[in-house]
Write a structure and sequence with these properties.
- By secondary structure, the protein is mostly beta strands.
- The protein has one domain: Thrombin, subunit H.
- The protein contains one helix and eight strands, in the order E-E-E-E-E-E-E-H-E.
- The strands form two sheets. Strands 2-3-4-7-6-5 form a six-stranded antiparallel barrel. A two-stranded antiparallel ribbon has the order 1-8.
- A hairpin with a 2-residue loop joins strand 5 and strand 6.
- The protein is globular, with a radius of gyration of 14 Å.
Length: 121
Amino acid sequence: MQTRIRRSPAAMPVRIDGRRGPLQGRIDNISRTGARLRHGGEVPKGERLAIRLAGEDVTVTVLWSRGPLAGIRFAGPLAPERLAAIAGGERPELEEGAPQRVPAPGPPSSSCGMCRCSAMI
């Protein structure tokens, strides 16, 4: 049985290091396995990046990228305590039996109006 992990809102600045040089960005929401990243440059799908998150370097892979937004997956899941610290003390609960999904092409979802963030990372 697959488990979907809820996202927690976050507004955390991050430094992004990739093939195109350093960028400044912000994590908009986060889960144990990934996050939605807002950035001011170009981060193509499939690119591996290093981001500076809560004082630590974390390796991520870009799952999708649309304009200033990107969905990223962490190289390994974050520990619940680390996620709670990053998300401002929130500890997202697991939803048992919910399938993991990735964004699909189509119009923006109603969740934020700017992207397809209702699709889970």
